[in-house]
Design goal:
alpha+beta, elongated
Length: 502
């Protein structure tokens, strides 16, 4: 009997301690799923108090299901909480806090140990409902994304992509219907409405990337806003090729870097990147802004933006010592946001935000704070610097150039009366044998003479046969409407409730 008891004791401890994870993750074990799905979860609400996720009681073995009152509006941020497929979005990242399962929530308040009330966490997003709605209305039914960020803190104020999806069917207790809804969305398709393209799909950023090229030139002391002066030209032919890089619409341009940024001169910036800045400094400049790294946004599966990091061996050097490499033509194209350069709207919003914030790139985030059911603070997000993108002096110069772009250049449609606005437009060719283009714009805005309070990126994706849609005519009016709303003071938070609707 003693031996049998010893064996039982050893086996019990093995199962509870060493085999715990394997048992919980075993697909045949549904007890944990039933426990978590049926348990109370805290609400998710916007910064201005709109409830975007809550638990409601249902007549089922599962006990509760998750409900999303705003439907598609916050699906790419809040995510869903599915019995069949688990959580996504904020529901995934902050699952333990919402379910009240963190150590602090379970044991931080000893009185909770003697209470029958379920422990949960109510999460407040950084997103503003007023800005999110204007982003949806302004973009309309055009494939694309809008990202709005506070450059001083990294708080995401709006995160919208169209098309979106309704997360309610995925969270239904009707498990067959939930499976059908999930399969209909086809999550593996890059064009699926379920894909949060604002931070999970990278496309050529076009001329918005010229801001990064200008920053790389400043950082390498290769150019200033007024030197060197480039020849006026309708086309630039990089070394080692006979292929000409033209300006948009066949126009001619040249002059200083500030002149080139104001009119978005391809020939100037292609030559600047290839023969003045050079491949190594271009790579360093892009990576300083976060290219070739995954932004630390607190949402799952964030896509990294890319800049080519290998242009081949050095074949020669310019008179100023800039390397002429095997793929110098590729350096020229990458410097104007084409070739293998790709960026998510989130990444390009971060570029604008860093310029606006004295060169400091703050960590982007969507969680503001979590409080318990009594309103006591459980956790809050403390702003932090992700990386220094450029020096304060370089940021000042680049910010002034971007303000000129919005004042008298290609981004005049971005202006918001009463505020200081800077921007950069972009038009990215989809394929070489098509006129279809993505329309981009990035920018920032704030009270005159004060630090910018808002940064933005808007992408309107090319549609087959849509032709050459430009950032200045297509994306800028969208961004202007969103900026105008985001620059308004945050409305007082509306009352939130955990009560289920009648």
């Amino acid at each position: 009997m003693v031996v049998c008891f010893a064996i039982l004791f050893v086996q019990l401890n093995r199962l509870q301690v060493f085999a715990q994870d394997d048992l919980q993750e075993n697909p045949l074990n549904t007890r944990a799923i039933i426990r978590d799905f049926g348990a109370e979860r805290g609400i998710i609400a916007t910064a201005d108090g709109v409830v975007v996720a809550r638990s409601i009681e249902v007549d089922s073995q599962l006990g509760r299901e998750r409900q999303y009152p705003e439907g598609e509006l916050y699906a790419h941020t809040a995510g869903f909480f599915s019995f069949n497929f688990g959580p996504s979005g904020v529901e995934d990242t902050y699952n333990d806090l919402l379910a009240g399962q963190t150590t602090e929530q379970q044991f931080g308040d000893l009185s909770a140990l003697f209470s029958d009330d379920e422990v949960t966490g109510n999460l407040t997003l950084t997103l503003r409902d007023d800005v999110q709605r204007v982003a949806r209305e302004a973009l309309g039914e055009r494939k694309g994304s809008v990202v709005v960020i506070d450059p001083r803190t990294g708080e995401i104020l709006a995160l919208w992509s169209w098309p979106s999806f309704d997360p309610n069917p995925l969270s239904s207790i009707d498990l067959e219907a939930a499976t059908a809804a999930y399969e209909a969305l086809d999550f593996d398709d890059l064009d699926s409405p379920a894909l949060a393209k604002a931070y999970r799909r990278a496309l050529p950023p076009g001329s918005t990337f010229k801001v990064v090229t200008a920053a790389a030139a400043l950082a390498a002391n290769a150019a200033t806003p007024v030197t060197p002066v480039f020849d006026v030209s309708a086309g630039y032919t990089p070394p080692l090729t006979t292929s000409v890089i033209p300006n948009f619409g066949g126009s001619s341009c040249g002059g200083t870097m500030a002149d080139g940024l104001r009119v978005s001169c391809n020939t100037l910036f292609a030559e600047l990147g290839a023969e003045v800045v050079g491949p190594d400094s271009m790579i360093d400049g892009a990576e300083a802004f976060g290219f070739n790294a995954r932004p630390p946004l607190d949402l799952p599966a964030v896509e990294a933006s890319t800049f080519p990091d290998d242009f081949g061996a050095v074949l020669d050097r310019t008179d100023d010592g800039i390397p002429i490499v095997e793929d110098t033509p590729g350096v020229a194209l990458a410097a104007i946001g084409q070739k293998d350069t790709s960026a998510t709207p989130l990444q390009m919003a971060l570029v604008a935000a860093a310029v606006a914030n004295d060169g400091l790139l703050m960590t982007p985030h969507v969680m503001a704070e979590v409080r318990d059911r009594d309103g006591e603070l459980v956790e809050s997000y403390e702003p932090s610097v992700w990386r220094p993108a450029l020096t304060r002096s370089d940021a000042d110069q680049l910010r002034a150039m971007m303000i000129e772009v919005a004042t008298s250049g290609t981004a005049t449609a971005l202006q918001v009366p009463g505020f200081e606005v800077g921007g950069k437009t972009g038009t990215a060719q989809v394929v070489s044998d098509s006129d279809d283009t993505h329309a981009w714009i990035i920018g920032f805005a704030g009270p005159p003479g004060e630090p910018a309070t808002v940064a933005i990126a808007v992408l309107v994706e090319a549609e087959p046969g849509s032709g050459q849609q430009t950032g200045g005519t297509v994306a800028a009016p969208i961004a202007q409407q969103v900026l105008a709303q985001a620059l308004q003071p945050l409305a007082p938070a509306q009352a939130t409730t955990e009560e289920s609707p009648d």
